Amino acid sequence: MVASSSSLKLQDLIQEIREAKTQAQEREVIQKECAHIRASFRDGDPLHRHRQLAKLLYVHLLGYPAHFGQMECLKLIASPRFTDKRVGYLGAMLLLDERQDAHLLITNSIKTDLSQGIQAVQGLALCTLSATGSAEMCRDLATEVEKLLLQPSAYVRKKAVLTAVHMIRKVPELSDIFLPPCAQLLHEHHHGILLGTITLITELCERSPAALKHFRKMVPQLVHILRTLVTTGYSKEHSISGVSDPFLQVQILRLLRILGRNHEESSETMNDLLAQVATNTDTSRNAGNAVLFETVLTIMDIRSAAGLRVLAVNILGRFLLNTDRNIRYVALTSLLRLVQSDHSAVQRHRPTVVECLREPDGSLSRRALELSLALVNSSNVQAMIQELQGFLESCPPDLQADCASGILLAAERFAPTKRWHIDTTLRVLTTAGTHVRDDAVASLTQLIGGAQELHAYSVRRLYSALAEDLSQQPLVQAATWCIGEYGDLLLEGSCEETEPLQVEEEEVLALLERVLQSHMSLPATRGYALTALVKLSTRLRGDNKSCLDVELQQRAVEYNTLFQKYDHVRAAILEKIPLVERGGSQVDEEAKESKETAQLSEAAPVPTEPQASKLLDLLDLLDGPSGDAQHPRPLDPTPGSALIHLLNLPCAPPPPAPIPNLKVFEREGLQLDLSFVRPPGTPTLLLITVTATNTSGGDVTHFICQAAVPKSFQLQLQAPSGDTVPAQGGLPMTQLLRILNPKKAPLRLKLRLTYNHFGQSVQEIFEVNNLPVEAWQ
Amino acid sequence: MIKFFLMVNKQGQTRLSKYYEHVEINKRTLLETEVIKSCLSRSNEQCSFIEYKDFKLIYRQYAALFIVVGVNDTENEMAIYEFIHNFVEVLDDYFSRVVNNV
């Protein structure tokens, strides 16, 4: 039984495997055969070893493990018979690689085989060496291979060149050995050897600047070879669809590119040739286009003449109009590379690029998108954004994020008017709102905040958009913020730039309520909505005040109960203080707001916030869920102040011990105080509020406060409430510092103040001493 | 530089695989399934070049057989496309009957 299957020929095995109908059956056949092969290897039958290994290699090709054949390869290589050597070397190439220990053992066999004179055997050895030679093997055998480079037999020379390429890749230091023969090898007529030589020279030049210099001298010779290739007529041996050996042409062009890069002289020598190749190549078939593409790449990379570069861009433009999608893809990729250096030339092809946006093919439309975004400039921005927005509506979801951010970025850089910018952002948010980056909302709010004349317009647009669709979170957030800020403008009813929209207070409140209760709203969105409600309570006129407040109270209580049910959500919400870099409103989310609104209804109406300071500073002090048991303290109505510090409110047990305030600086009436808060939910977070008060007779202007902490801390400075501290106890300026202290290291803080006071500019740098221990423990 | 060369049939079975950089055998099967999935899902209308991780895949379909070559960034895609066809023609000339017969 063993004998019959050990003599199973390879062809028979293949037949058997083919006959298996399913994958499972195939696996069965193969496993059975592998067992036989293993047994045969153990018995050590020299006659059939090559056949067994051949079968094993076939099985390996199909993807099954074959590592137990490795030692057999060695034995076969060492055998004197050619049939054995042949399979042995093949096995070595497939099964042995650098990671196997058996690998090094073939070095000696290869050495012997290289030096004995039979071409076929030398060829085998060279092949194996070039496929799997490790660094040590290459070093040992380099001189042998070099000798073979100049052998009379073309077959051996070709294989030797390929081996040399591999050796250079593995051990770049061997370039000294292989550099001298190259000059002679360039005179070869045999295209195979020539191709190998060009590759060898390319590798040498890429790895060694000395080689690069050396081979620059050969540029004329390379030019000559390429010219002969291009201009000779049809040669049966080398023609592929009418082009004479396109592979060799491409390789020579690539080498010329490397040699001509950053080198005026070589580039000049190549100019004529490149123009000739570009114009003479037949582009009706893919082979010609491949050569043309390589030519374009070379022209782009070397120091070519201006006319030549224009020719290159035009060729790419022609590619773009080609019906073959491969060519269009390649053209779009290259144009993307060119757009930085030859911007105006590429601009000429903008309409075609925009056409490609409409392609159904994913790779093409992605490239077209990148290129279109790169082509946007101030003159074509409106038309381009129009196209891109059309694309955004119909493109696949994975491209939507990129497209949306691209449009927003381009709009930011090139917006002709603020109103256009707002319109564009709004359109992007409505179309692809869920895919925009997180800071889109922040930038939109900042943009609207800065464009005073457009407040009415933007709030109206956002209101209508919100009324239609509550699902796009960034849009909802931006809209609620806007309604909160400019709700009074919304209710006024008239605005030149949109149709008159009569909006009642109840509608606004109803809309905000819908946002609050919609389960599509993220916690952050609910935060925005609640803040908007709070702000509205201070702005909306008169009579409805009481019912407004009652509504707010009701909302807030409902919200509180919601929180009680979802306590895990609360921690996440309470931590979240979105970073505002350019000034905008801080949104802080907490159950304490219920107390807040209750206070508002009792205390005197807090005047409308001044436009300049939109900070609603709500530092969170966490209590138990039974927030309503608190006695709210009446607010201090500091003149004109909308800043509410909840720091000194009494806390329900178990309270975190309030950390005492610290006065850190005093000079000529300007005083700086620090107050500390450690939110219990986040033990590593410390919030410091810097308050600057001015009791002197002169204003303090251009006040800037900067802070520095040791390296293990993370510091975030949020925008100050303003840069002027008015005289005579006027509105204090506050700034919030967030410090993360993951290692609970002792806190050290250095402050730097710069300001103008009494006509003098003052700069103060000092370290804050006596920081309370509770600030970091 | 060519990183790997695959011949896979329409059912997703690998008929030939040659890797020019060492890849673990289990990673190979993973790579092959993913590559095949992306090639099979393309229609005739789309171009033959796909971007996959840090390779570029260039594939050509011959009846029920896909030939996929994975290259890195420095290669000329159209030259590789031509090369695949050259390879098939050589096989055809040498063996006089190239067919995927499963």
UniProtKB/TrEMBL annotation, chain B:
What membrane topology was assigned to this protein in its record?
Answer: Peripheral membrane protein
Cellular localization per UniProt: Endomembrane system
Keywords assigned by UniProt, alphabetized: Membrane, Protein transport, Transport
Domain of life of the source? Eukaryota
List, alphabetically, the GO terms of the cellular component aspect.
cytoplasm; endomembrane system
Q: Which InterPro entries match?
A: AP_complex_ssu, AP_mu_sigma_su, Longin-like_dom_sf
Pfam families for the chain:
Clat_adaptor_s
Q: Where would you say this protein principally sits, based on its record? A: membrane
Q: Any idea where the AP complex mu/sigma subunit domain is? A: 1-99
A single Gene Ontology biological process assigned to it is: intracellular protein transport
Task: Describe, as the record does, how this protein assembles with itself and its partners.
Answer: Adaptor protein complex 4 (AP-4) is a heterotetramer composed of two large adaptins (epsilon-type subunit AP4E1 and beta-type subunit AP4B1), a medium adaptin (mu-type subunit AP4M1) and a small adaptin (sigma-type AP4S1).
Q: Give the family, as the similarity comment puts it.
A: Belongs to the adaptor complexes small subunit family.
What protein does this entry describe?
Answer: AP complex subunit sigma
Q: What is the lineage of its organism?
A: Eukaryota, Metazoa, Chordata, Craniata, Vertebrata
